[in-house]
Specification:
Length: about 120
């Protein structure tokens, strides 16, 4: 059974930082492309950042220079370090694991940026 469990969300003031984690089980983690998506109320889910099995990362333009995605294959975990947070970063953040035609999603973690 595949499970992706996100953690680390919460309420933070503008300019603050959060670190999200996604722990995976039931998959051969090191071969999967891992990604973070987010969905704000009334908006479509969008890709925030992704990292390949080889460690190459890409980012949405809106988060470049502020967010960093990383993975620890020994711990089957992917991280999203979020700095200089803005109110427009408020959303539910989802972890996704992808390999070929196989896609798995976590349940999401809420991030709220507000003063």
């Amino acid at each position: 059974q595949v499970q992706l469990v996100e953690s680390g969300g919460g309420l933070v003031q503008p300019g603050g930082s959060l670190r999200l984690s996604c722990a995976a089980s039931g998959i051969t983690f090191n071969i999967y492309r891992m990604a973070w998506y987010r969905q704000a109320p009334g908006k479509q889910r969008e890709l925030v950042a992704a990292v390949t099995s080889g460690g190459s990362a890409n980012y949405a333009d809106s988060v470049k220079g502020r967010f960093t995605i990383s993975r620890d294959n020994a711990k089957n975990t992917v991280f999203l370090q979020m700095n200089s947070l803005k109110p427009e970063d408020t959303a539910v953040y989802y972890c996704k694991a992808g390999w070929g035609t196989r896609d798995y999603w976590g349940q999401g973690t809420q991030v709220t940026v507000s003063s």
